[in-house]
């Protein structure tokens, strides 16, 4: 491939997407990689990945994005696939309190299972999804509360997203690639 010679570095980054069932993990990935959204809910079983390439400065980066199951009974693959992750994307639904309260658990569980070299500096990012619902009127977790939680976790980056309306999806995954790259 002739054009790839213009890039000085090619990098594969493994990204894990976590969060409660129904928050929109699969939908965010489908919007980012295929520009598609469906209203229909189909629970993810186990884990699978999709990839998308992007250019950052003179680097060609391939994001390998692992979608995981939020439903406990489908989390059967165990944690083998967390290993070697370069970034963890945590997702909650701004309209569902429980999905925000679960974040501490997802965060701790990821660190325990992925066991990164330096758990203090491992790159996480938080997405508050479904900001489009009911024009924001059914929202129960404020942006302020979310940002405070991020501050308490070593200032991790935060984006408010909508997989349905394609709000901040591109920006969020660009940030994923940037923080994953800078820590590698
Ligand atoms: P699990 O696979 O069970 O862990 O769920 P998930 O986190 O992958 O959720 P999924 O992407 O399947 O989305 C769940 C439901 O929410 C689906 O009906 C989606 O259409 C809907 N949904 C996802 N993102 C959005 C969004 O940004 N806005 C709106 N209005 N609906 C969304
Ligand atoms: Mg899913």
From TrEMBL:
A biological process from GO: protein transport
Superkingdom of the organism of origin: Eukaryota
Signal peptide: none
Any Pfam family hit: Ras
Keyword annotations: GTP-binding, Lipoprotein, Membrane, Methylation, Nucleotide-binding, Prenylation, Protein transport, Transport
Cell compartments where the protein resides: Endomembrane system
InterPro entries assigned to the protein according to its UniProt record, in alphabetical order: P-loop_NTPase (IPR027417), Small_GTP-bd (IPR005225), Small_GTPase (IPR001806)
Membrane topology category: Lipid-anchor
Main location group: membrane
PANTHER family in the record: RAB FAMILY, SMALL GTPASE SUPERFAMILY, P-LOOP CONTAINING NUCLEOSIDE TRIPHOSPHATE HYDROLASE-RELATED
NCBIfam families membership: small_GTP
Protein name: Ras-related protein Rab7-like
């Amino acid at each position: 491939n002739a054009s790839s010679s213009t890039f000085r570095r090619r990098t594969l980054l493994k990204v894990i997407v976590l969060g409660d069932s129904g928050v929109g993990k699969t939908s965010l990935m489908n919007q980012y990689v295929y520009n598609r959204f469906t209203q229909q809910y189909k629970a993810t079983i186990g884990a699978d990945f999709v990839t998308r390439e992007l250019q950052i400065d003179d680097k060609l980066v391939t994001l390998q994005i692992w979608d995981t199951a939020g439903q406990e009974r489908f989390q059967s693959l165990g944690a083998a696939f967390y290993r070697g992750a370069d970034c963890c994307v945590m997702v909650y639904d701004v309209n569902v309190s429980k999905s925000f309260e679960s974040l501490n658990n997802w965060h701790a569980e990821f660190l325990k299972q992925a066991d990164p070299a330096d758990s203090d500096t491992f790159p996480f990012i938080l997405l508050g999804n479904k900001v489009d619902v009911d024009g924001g009127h059914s929202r129960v977790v404020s942006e302020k509360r979310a940002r405070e939680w991020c501050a308490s976790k070593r200032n991790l980056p935060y984006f408010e997203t909508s997989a349905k309306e394609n709000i901040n999806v591109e920006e969020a995954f660009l940030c994923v690639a940037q923080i994953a790259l800078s820590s590698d």
